[in-house]
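Side project, low priority. Logging it here so it doesn't get lost.
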Amino acid sequence: MSRIPDRTSPLPQPQARGSVSDRRCILLCAAIFLLAAAATNPVVEMGFNDDWSFAHIAREFAATGRLSYNGWPAMMLIPQIVWAAGFIKLFGFSFFALRASTVVLGLLLVPVLYRLGRGCGLTPQFAVFATLLIMLSPLFLPLAVSFMSDVPAFFFFVLCLYGGVQSWKASTAKACGRWAGLVVLAGVLSGLDRQIYWLAPLSFLPVAAWIQRRRKGAAMLLAAAWLSVVAVVAFFVPWYKAKPYSIDEHTLDAWKHATPGYLAFRTSHMVGQFAVTLALILLPLLAGYVIPGFGAATRKTAAFAMAGVLALGFVLVRFHPLPSMGNGLTEYGILGRQIIELGVKPVILGPVIRGLLTMVVVLSCAGCGLALWKQRGTAGARIGRDPAAPLLWLGLVFCAVWCLAILYRSASSAAPWFDRHLIALMPLAAVPLLRHYQTHIGQSVSRWSWALLALMALYGVATTHDALAAGRARLTAAHALERAGVPRTEILAGLEYDGWTQLETAGFINNSLIGNPAGAYRQVTCTGPGVVQLWYLGMMPAIRPRYFVTTSSLPGLEDAPAAPVDFTTWMPPARRNVFTQILPGGASAGCR
């Protein structure tokens, strides 16, 4: 990796098209993504994380043409459900068909991400790196082979972002209006899947209008586009709240009763976790800045920066070693301990690995900061003329309103934040940083960056494969009980299996956040030892389990006659088991 050149002008740039055609680059990225998705072996007729609830809505919509919410998702999911219904009509209902619908959207996302990078001045190699950095991320890949709502909403968000960049650059009012139409269409669809993405068109269009304010007619078209988004939001927010079994998180009520100390703690904790987790998922990119950044600094500055790295790294390793947010990236792989099933999961990232990873992330951030500081004068003078400037400014405005929205929502304990919520910020940070590297440091991506990208991609494939393999094993154990005549309502086999049981039996989840119909939620009383009381059991009173499918033998339970189910994983330990256990005397547990 080269040192930062001491020059006042950027490095000479290649022509808009490199020696490798854009089409071949797109096909290469698509092929790599498909290979990675196939390697996870996403074949299990059971949900993944929360998507069992979405799958039930999609099945009912395909059969009846009506959107029937069920008390679990707080998102509208409309484009995702309509898209998936087409796959159900073609191939019949199956969880694999629903996963295939998400994989197809992932394939469609590849050219949009690549073209976004190219439109911001990245050469083919840098645009390929930006695309694969997102598509192969261990945060994105598990979602891309599931039916979670993150990928469909993100697909439309990136389309909206691309339209915003093009409307900024448009040379005529007519062209600006056409691109504003894409911003409206894609932004509305993104928000109809996950409501927070409505912030994209609502923030992009005013920025573009300011840039185009001197072009006759352009600002009026952009203002009309913005008002159309407002009208859509004003219609669908009350529409969703009026739907039976929709969710109201009561965030405003939480703000009314929250103390300043509680809000300050939640805010600072959330901002810190978001910052370090975003740095973690961008680590392959940031690592390329380490040698150029420290090499360009004076000895005094480098020593001061290294002292800061050691101090901050020690604090994080001591109190919040990475990964620290949970959900997609945890020390257990995907999801944490006893989040979706009973039993103790093996630790994948031990304390030493997490400590080293934390220090590398802090070091990479310091190197990037030093590199940006070194070029602050040159970059600042030329940023307005840089092809990546529109994305940078649109991204900064979106991030500002996005952070305010997340802060507002964070007041409610019923609205947790997860690392997968950061997916939208990945292209907003990655493309400008890659453009800066390409312009001021080197015309090829660092070998360290490629190596770390490959390593994180392999980790993402392996942990996704293992999570799905564990799901297949749990499902096999549950099906063995069903074949032996045990009713499904007497089996506790994990969130995805149990949630489907509750929906098939009662039609909705017993969620206290359901406001319509009134009285749908019922208070419950739970019985049984604490070792079998998973956090969601009170939401699923249709289940009165006598048999417990666990990932490890639990104290206080006895082994059932059913033999353990063996399965193989890529991450150690390679051989694992799923057990079937019962309460002493064959008693039942659950909530009523």
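Brief comment: Residues 260-445 form one domain.
Revisit when time allows.
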